[in-house]
Specification:
Reverse transcriptase zinc-binding domain; 123 residues
Length: 123
């Protein structure tokens, strides 16, 4: 156990560390609608209806019909070929840490991407 506590935060390999490698809280711009804030927070923690509903239904994880891999937040936002055109259109980064960054311009791009792809209602 002592080894775990001696590891620096930024050296740990976790899903959260792919999104955020510091301990300060994320701030979402004040004028953001609650629906968007909730969706972005779900994406940041990696648990959305789209990616984890199989747990509640006691089924196997959903597989992307285009790519043949499990649906994950990372896959949907940065890898899935179905959304290539929208990612390019809204300048969505290939790096999850940038996509979910709390800077207002990134939040705005993400909201537009989620709305255009109808993913917003699936989160």
């Amino acid at each position: 156990m002592t080894h775990f506590f001696n590891v620096k935060w930024n050296e740990m390999s976790t899903k959260l560390n792919e999104i955020k490698n510091y301990v300060q809280p994320f701030i979402i711009p004040v004028n953001t609608l609650r629906k968007y804030k909730t969706s972005i927070n779900r994406l940041r923690i990696g648990y959305t209806h789209l990616t984890y509903s199989h747990l509640m239904k006691n089924k196997d994880p959903s597989i992307c019909s285009c790519c043949g891999v499990s649906f994950t937040v990372k896959h949907v936002l940065t890898e899935c070929r179905i959304y290539d055109r929208e990612r390019e259109r809204f300048q969505i980064s290939d790096h999850l840490v940038e996509v979910l960054n709390p800077e207002p311009i990134n939040v705005f791009k993400l909201i537009r991407f989620l709305s255009q792809t109808n993913l917003l209602n699936k989160l």
